[in-house]
Amino acid sequence: MAVTHTPAAAPPLPAHPDPQLDAILSSGLPHELSYAFDGPFHLLLPDRFDANVASFTQVLNEAGVEGRVYYAKKANKAAAWMDCCALSGTGVDVASAGELRDALSHGVRGEHVVVTGPAKTDGLLRVAVLQGCLIAVDALDELERILAQARAATRPARILLRRLPAAQPHSRFGLDDTELEAALARCAQAQDAVVMEGFSFHLSGYDPLLRAELAGELVELCLKARALGLQADRISIGGGFAVDYTDAEHWERFLREQRPEHYHAGKSFNPGDFYPYHSPVAGPDALRTILTTDGLAGRLREAGVKLLLEPGRALLDRAGCTVFRVQGVKDRSGYGIVTVDGSSLSLSEQWFNSEYLPDPVLLPAHEPQGEPYAACVGGATCLESDMVTWRKVRFPTRPAVGDLLVYPNTAGYQMDSNESPFHDLPLPPKVVLDTAGGTTHWRLDRHPLA
C-alpha cells in the first residue's frame, strides 16, 4: 500500500489555468507521442506565439507609436518560431552566424533582423551587412570592423549604437559616455559606409520604469545625433518583459513558507535566485507601462522615433510544454523519488542555481488510485545533481511507471538552453501542434540542431 507523503511537500505552485493545454493533455495525444518517441519531448504551439506577437503590436498601435517587435531567438531555437516570423513579418534578434543563417533560411528578410551580442565575428558582420540587417554596435573596434565590411561590400551598414546604462555601470555590454561620443563622431565622418539609425541598450532585470527612463534618454540621444547629420530615428529597449506563470497568492505563499526540508537532500535555494514566477506587470502590459511612464509614447511621436523591442520569453508565454515519462518510483522517509526518462538539462534553471518552479502535472497511464503523494523528480543520468525538480511536489496520487509528468509553459528558455546528449540520451524532439481549422495535427519541428 502506498504511504501518504503530503506533510513534506513544498507549498503548491500551480501554473495559471490553461484550457487549451488542458484539452491537449486530456486528449490522449501526450501518451501516444510518448510511446512513439520512447522518451521525453516538447510540445510547441505556434498559434500562441502569433497571439503574443499580436498583443505586443496592439499595444504599440494603441499608443500611436511606430515600431517593430523582434523575437529574441536565443529563447528557443525551434524552427517553428522562424516560420511564424517569416509569415507575419515579425523581426528576429540574433547573436551568432548560426542564428542569422537559420533566420534567413526560413524566409525572414535581412532588413527584419537585428544582430546583437558582444564582439561579433567578422563572418557574422559580413553576412549582416550584405543582407541589410540592423547591427547593434557594442564596441569601438567593432564599429571599425563594420565600416571595413561595408566598404568591402560597397553598401552602407545599418547600425544602432548600444549605450552602457548608467544604472548598470558594471555591465559588460555597451559604450560608455566617452566611447559613445567617439562613435558618434566616427559615424558622422563615415556616412559613406554607415547609416546610424539610432541607439539601444542592454538592461538586466524586469523593471519597466527603469526601462522607460532609459528609453527617454535614448530619445534625447537621437535628437543630439541628428544635429551631427545622422539619421537616428529609432531606439531599441531590448527584452526584459516578464512572464506571469502563477498567481500572486501561490507565489507569495511559496516564497514565505518554502524551506530546506521541502527539498530533496535538504537542498536550499536563495529566493533571490528564483525567476519572478509571478509578475503583476508582465508581457504586453509591461510595454504599456513603459509607454505611459513620463509620457514616453508622446515623446516618441513628437521626435519621430520608432520603438524596437526584443522579447524572447514573453513571446513564448504558454507556447509550449515539456513531457517526461516516469521510469521508476522509490519511497524515502516521508517522500518519494520519481525518476523520469530525461534529465534536468531540459529545464535550464540550473544555470542560475535555481530550478523551474511551476508544478508539473501528473498524467496517469491508468485510472489513478491511492492518496496524495509528495515526491521530488530525478533525471535518468548517473549524477546526484541531475534533479529535474528538487522540491517535493504534492501529486494527487503516487506516480507509476508509464505515467507522464508535464511541465507547463517551458518554451521560454527552458526547453533547450542547456540540453546535451549526455549518456548518449537523445535530445527530446520538438513536436509542433497545428490547430488551424479547429482540428489539431502534429508534426516534428524540422531543425538540424533540435
- What's the domain count? 2
As residue ranges, the low-confidence spans are 1-6
Beta-strand content bin? 15-25%
- Helix/strand-derived category reads alpha/beta
Please identify which CATH superfamily of the largest domain we are dealing with: Alanine racemase
**N-C termini distance:** 42 Å
- The 3D shape can be described as elongated
Average per-residue pLDDT, rounded, comes to 94
Cα Rg: 24 Å
The CATH topology of the largest domain = TIM Barrel
Task: Count the DSSP helices.
Answer: 12
* SSE string, helices as H and strands as E: HHEHEHEHEHEHEHEHEHHHEEEEEEEEE
Biggest beta sheet attributes = 9 strands, mixed
Label the CATH architecture of the largest domain. Answer: Alpha-Beta Barrel
CATH class of the largest domain, please?
Alpha Beta
What share of residues is helical? 25-40%
Detailed description of the structure:
Helix 6 packs across helix 7 (140-153) and helix 9 (208-226) packs across helix 11 (283-292). This protein has two domains: 19-45 and 318-444, Beta Barrel (Lyase, Ornithine Decarboxylase, Chain A, domain 1); 46-244 and 279-316, TIM Barrel. The protein is of the alpha/beta class and 450 residues long. Helix 4 (79-88) links the parallel strand 2 (67-72) and strand 3 (91-94). Residues 1-6 have low confidence and may be disordered. It has helices spanning 19-25, 29-37, 46-63, 79-88, 97-105, 122-130, 140-153, 177-189, 208-226, 248-257, 283-292, 296-303, and strands at 41-44, 67-72, 91-94, 113-115, 134-137, 157-163, 194-201, 234-236, 306-309, 320-332, 335-340, 361-363, 373-378, 387-395, 404-407, 430-434, 441-444. The strands form two sheets. Strands 1, 10, 11, 12, 13, 14, 15, 16 and 17 form a nine-stranded mixed sheet that branches. An eight-stranded parallel beta barrel has the order 2-3-4-5-6-7-8-9, surrounded by seven helices.
